[in-house]
Amino acid sequence: MKLVKDIENLYSREFKQWELARENYVALSHMNVKKFNYNGREIVAQFNPCRYNSAAAKIDSESLSKRECFLCSEHQPIEQETILWQDTYKIQINPYPIFNRHLTLSHVEHQPQAIVPHIDQMMQLAALLPGYVLFYNGPTCGASAPDHLHFQAAPFSELPLCREAIHDDCDLSVYFPFFYIIRKKASEAKHWFHVFEQGMQEINQKEGEYPQNVLCWRTKNEWHIIIIPRSKHRPDCYGYDEEHFLLSPASVELTGVWPIARECDFNRITPSLLQSISEEVTISEDEKEQILEYFINNA
Q1: Which domain range does residue 28 map to?
Q2: Cβ(229)–Cβ(283) under 8 Å?
Q3: What CATH number does the domain containing 36 carry?
Q4: pLDDT in tens, 163-177
Q5: How many domains does the chain have?
Q6: Were 294 and a residue from 86, 190, 199, 215 both cysteine, which residue would form a disulfide, CB within 3.0 to 4.6 Å?
């Protein structure tokens, strides 16, 4: 499709003119990687130092107010080119990649992360990017820029949970609680999405968006949406000293790919630790059942 071709041309230009981005993408092919099979679940860990700022990001209101937003055009490098979609979203290559194709799709206006009002735009962009998964990190669910609305996109083939979800014979119980919507019609997928959102809000009883990560992609005949409700932002083991782990799970980690910024953490991680962290930051089975009951009664 045209947008995919435009993105490939964008990568070609950026690699020629933007040294930082080029070096970080080249480093992907040389980085140390560990692959685990944990109880039938694929987990990939990569030693990726360029992700340090994301893992260590301080997202409290005071810290956000003191830094320039790196998704606002006026604060971005002059080398960073943009494909503008409907005068609303900037499509750009992510200069600190986890995958060999890693996009950031940010709103042209500086406004907070929020998925419910923007699921339609997420789905429209997913339809234009076959072979990609779009993902959304909630304000307290791994987003290093919670104050600026944005999605990211990565190749579908790189995300283990997404690959496994489309196979009916896979046992997804090895993952944490999540909701998987698969519908042929966009209107039905959006309806189910909103019912799940209402169900999560029903058990939350708090103002603001229910903490969550959301993934969306389009195959030839079907829409796919994964909702990962969250119980907390970061695990108890999170910390900056070497007695702790600088691991801040977002959509990518919870789908089976862990970019690890510090070598000391990379050397110590085990598949059981990463699975334990995933379970710690997501909701319990009891909470999942409550949301499912609401969905069944209201879908």
Answers
A1: 2-298
A2: yes
A3: 3.30.428.70
A4: 998 887 777 888 999
A5: 1
A6: 199
